[in-house]
Amino acid sequence: MQTIFKKLASWLFLTGILIAVIIGLISGANVWTDNSGYINVILAALGFLVGILSFFALGNITSERVPTFLIAALILVGIGATATWFQHLQVIGEIYMGIASTLVIFAAPAAGLLAIRAIWDAGKTEEIQKVIPKIPNK
Question: Distances in Å between the alpha carbon of 23 and those of 16, 19, 42, 100, 108?
Answer without folding.
Answer: 10, 6, 12, 11, 17
